[in-house]
Design a protein that fits this description.
Blueprint: E1 2-7, E2 10-15, H1 22-29, E3 48-51, E4 54-57, E5 70-72, H2 86-93, H3 103-116, H4 124-131, H5 142-154
Parallel strand pairs: 1-5
Antiparallel strand pairs: 1-2, 3-4, 3-5
Helix pairs in contact: 2-5
Amino acid sequence: MRTTLIVNGSRYELDVEPRRTLADALREDCGLTGTHLGCEHGVCGACTVLVDGEAVRACLMFAVQCDGVQIRTVEGLAGPDGSDHPLQAAFSAEHALQCGFCTPGFLMLAVAALEADPSMVRDPERLRELLTSNLCRCTGYEAIRRAVISAAEAAGGYRD
């Protein structure tokens, strides 16, 4: 089935089977391997990308569902000059990654949340609920929480 994916501002004209997942199309057809596949059941969140600004599990969507819509992957976070996105910089500064497998999913989840409402970090329960929707086996989440708060502070969305 002919499908046009618009990923990070670039158009990809693809011929995909209707059952092909968005995650597989991004990784194999578009060559964007930052979207990781963990559980392939929508539980771990490693495959989180933004579809029209909403965080979604790319392993649970079909590529054909995304025909002509805006998709943003972790590769699309860097600035035009290649500089890190403020959230990427915060993850680095706060040591919020270890093995790095879950990091792209956390970055995309947090980017969507902060772009929608940077003040959401003021509510510890809301932030905890957001972050625990993705799985990390290495960091214990505290450094990730600090990184998201730090990025929100840098964007002016959080002040004590």
